[in-house]
């Protein structure tokens, strides 16, 4: 990335409310340089402005619009993602896969149940009354779950 100087107004806006020590830490410069940038006696490179704004496109153009602020990633749409959210992604994927398998098992059970009803088989002879009632209640719930899954 080119290190062209940025206008002082942009730099002052980016530095506003940030202590010189923090600017120095983020930009890897000495505190004296950071103070000069804040006062406007020296122009900072564009890369420093991107870092101070938390603009992640400073590291990779694909992250354009994403920011790092307050320990969070902020998407261009305003979604806030914490470190914990990122670390939880593998677990969420595992749980979703497990739920999908469970849903498929229920769908198979309901499909067999519907076939028995269609063929007018005596289901009561196969399952007890409590199980029969649960299966009847499960059909609309599973239908809605299948519709939601299809929408994803």
Outline the structure in words:
This protein is mostly helical and 152 residues long. The chain has two domains: 8-78, Orthogonal Bundle (434 Repressor (Amino-terminal Domain)), CATH 1.10.260; 84-151. The chain is 63% helix and 6% strand. It has helices spanning 8-15, 20-27, 31-39, 46-53, 83-118, 123-126, 129-151, and strands at 67-69, 72-74, 80-82. Helix 2 packs across helix 3. The protein is rod-shaped and about 90 Å long.
CATH topology of the largest domain: 434 Repressor (Amino-terminal Domain)
Rg over C-alpha atoms, rounded to the nearest angstrom: 29 Å
- Low-confidence sequence ranges: none
What is the ordering of alpha helices and beta strands? Answer: HHHHEEEHHH
N/C terminus separation: 39 Å
- How would you classify the helix and strand content by structural class? mainly alpha
Query: Could you say what the CATH architecture of the largest domain is?
Result: Orthogonal Bundle
Q: Helix count?
A: 7
Summarize the main sheet: 3 strands, antiparallel
Strand order of the largest sheet: 1-2-3
Looking at how many chains there are and whether they match, the oligomeric state comes to: single chain
User: Helix coverage percent of residues?
Assistant: 55-70%
- The outline comes out as rod-shaped
Top CATH class of the largest domain? Mainly Alpha
Number of strands: 3
Q: In what range is the share of β-strand residues?
A: 5-15%
């Amino acid at each position: 990335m080119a290190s062209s100087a940025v206008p002082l107004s942009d730099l002052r806006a980016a530095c506003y409310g940030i202590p010189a020590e923090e600017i120095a830490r983020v930009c890897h410069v000495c505190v004296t340089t950071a103070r000069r940038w804040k006062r406007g006696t020296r122009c900072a490179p564009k890369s420093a402005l991107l870092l101070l704004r938390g603009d992640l496109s400073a590291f990779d153009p694909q992250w354009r619009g994403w920011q790092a602020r307050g320990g969070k990633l902020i998407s261009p749409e305003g979604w806030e993602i914490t470190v914990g959210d990122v670390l939880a992604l593998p677990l969420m994927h595992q749980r979703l896969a497990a739920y999908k398998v469970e849903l498929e098992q229920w769908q198979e059970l309901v499909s067999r149940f519907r076939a028995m009803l269609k063929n007018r088989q005596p289901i009561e002879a196969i399952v007890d009354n409590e199980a029969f009632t649960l299966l009847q209640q499960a059909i609309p719930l599973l239908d809605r779950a299948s519709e939601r899954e299809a929408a994803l």
